[in-house]
Amino acid sequence: MKLIIINGPNLNLLGTREPDTYGNQNFEDYFSKLQFQFRDAELSHFQSNIEGELIDELQKADNEFDGIILNAAAYTHTSIGIGDAVKAISTPVVEVHISNTFSREKFRHKSYISPNAKGVILGFGLQSYDLAISSFIKG
Ligand code: DQA
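^ 3-dehydroquinate dehydratase, sequence as received from the core. Prediction below:
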């Protein structure tokens, strides 16, 4: 099973960014653990702070992977372009958030990704990614 995690803006700062909300582990360390934990799967990871690069990566990942795990971060709440890309591709996308966006500011309650996602996992800290990977492997 070939899966890619696509992370959006500011997620390169995990570990130091707002640790009360996002924890204190950096993504590279966490990703190494995921690769070990799911060693029968082929996991890739891409991060960008740039909206168009995220759209390019979604288009590139289409048909290259069995599933896409997308945390579009702040673009989740603003980007019609990323929402359209998720709609345009045929590889299933699971939307992930580290925090429970519904327990936060109202502007985080809106997602342009969810309507076209296979499912949404949020609020479990970095474990949200584990759960998304498991959903592809077990589903
Ligand atoms: C986030 C939630 C978003 O609202 C926020 O802009 C992020 C991270 C999360 O994983 O909890 O950058 O997607």
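The mean pLDDT is 96.
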